[in-house]
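Memo to structure team: turn this sequence into structure tokens by end of day. - J.P.
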Amino acid sequence: MLGGLFGDFVRGRRALRAFPEPVVQGIVLHRFIDQRTDHSTVIKQLRPHFPREFRRYAGIIIDLAFDHELAINWWRYMPGSLERFDLETRDLLRDNAELVPEKLTRFMRYADRHGLFTAYREEDVTLFALAGLGTRLSRPNPLHRVAEIWPEMAPQFKLAFRQFFPLMQSEVNHWRKSKSTTIGS
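Reply from structure team:
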């Protein structure tokens, strides 16, 4: 799980050398999920529904829209509550602080100030997060205006997420089995 959290904050193969093997496997799994998401038929079919000026940023918007869908439907897909997961995530990061990339530490400060991850249940929090992401990009972008397209896109996000997430869970289970060193685990 720790490596999964690091996935967006650790770049390149050499950087993996700094971590114990279980963390490396989590980072590699995160990269696998990102790659499979980018090539998913469900995602490819959703992209053309975006107005032209938002298409370049569709991946970012879909990512946070799916975070929103997962947060409001946590009970469908995950054991335990989202609140419990949130606490366990923070405990895990605190207990492994010496390994946590600085960029992740900064992101978690932001997450704590805004009540993430449970706050992703609220559309306005998701839209605020998208606008914030837009300010960190190097070129002008429309992420601060996603609220304009959200009402039209939200039903499509919901449908796409309900198709996509179980498929991704299945692919992750298959990946884990293929990486297992013992039969049946």
